[in-house]
Amino acid sequence: MVWRVKAKPSTYQCDEQSTALIMIDMQRDFLEPGGFGEALGNDVSTLRPVIAVCKDLLELARESNLTIVHTREGHLPDLSDLPETKRNRGEPGQKIGDLGPLGRILIRGSSGHSLMPELAPEKHEYVIDKPGKGAFFATDLHGILERERVTSLILAGVTTEVCVHSTVREANDRGYDCLVIGDACGSYFPDFHSVALKMISAQGGIFGKVTNFLEFSRAVSE
Ligand code: C5J
To answer: Does ligand 1 come within 6 angstroms of the Cβ of 162?
Structure first.
């Protein structure tokens, strides 16, 4: 079944056999008080509206039998995969690896590192742990997508201008056809969010195309 999604700058076309949903970093560390996002001085409540849209998107992807990949940004407890430059960012006591209300900040296995319970992965879905902002860097995401014969990616998650953007750029360079669901992405900075989406779809869709959940669900149910 071919889906034709109304998008910017033009209609996006894909089919369910070769399409994956990539749900980026919907972790407590970014969305809940006491995590990494708040340690960086952000108001994490700005991201809350995205959870419900991501939940609807995940349900639609499950009903459509898409390949589903969840990503989590985080580091090994011994910090061996954490570059010094990244470790040094933030206020003393609030850096990656320090102990916060949700456990060690952005460390694999701590409660802050886990995915939001509303968006918990199902058994057969992929969960990619990534040390960087882009989901292809230092992970086997590309291999997984090749094995699943995926060529089209539907992207959502947080934050729009950081990990979503980095992943879209990496995916585009690897030849994936990307569609970003704008209202299923969020940023602590509303102006960054809208500019980041424009940067993706500008210049003829230089990194990919952008739509919203309503348009995507319309195309799926047509
Ligand atoms: C950030 C992310 N914002 N998942 N990570 O540091 O976007």
So the answer is: yes
How far is Cα 207 from Cα 213, in angstroms, rounded to an integer?
Answer: 19
Residue 77's CB is within 10 A of a number of other CB atoms, namely 12
**Whose structure tokens read 């569609």?**
179
Is 30's C-beta closer than 6 angstroms to any atom of ligand 1? yes
**Ligand 1 contacts CB of residue 27 (under 6 A):** no
Give residue 147's pLDDT: 98
Catalytic residue among 163, 178, 183, 209: 163
* Sites in the chain below the pLDDT cut of 70: none
Compute the distance between CA of residue 158 and CA of residue 152 in angstroms, rounded to an integer: 20
Q: For the chain, what's the residue count?
A: 222
- CA 68, CA 88: separation in Å to the nearest integer? 34
Q: Which atom of ligand 1 is nearest to the CA of 157?
A: 4
Tell me whether residue 78 is one of the annotated catalytic residues.
no
In ligand 1, the atom with minimum distance to the C-alpha of 73 is 4
Instruction: Identify whether 163 is a catalytic site residue.
Output: yes
The alpha carbon of 174 is separated from its chain's Cα centroid by a whole number of angstroms, namely: 17
**Given this model, what pLDDT does residue 20 score?**
98
CA neighbor of 179 nearest in space, from 213, 146, 203: 213
- Tell me the pLDDT tens digit for each residue of 46-95: 999 999 999 999 999 999 999 999 999 999 999 999 999 999 998 999 99
Report which ligand 1 atom has the smallest distance to the Cα of 166: 7
pTM: 0.98
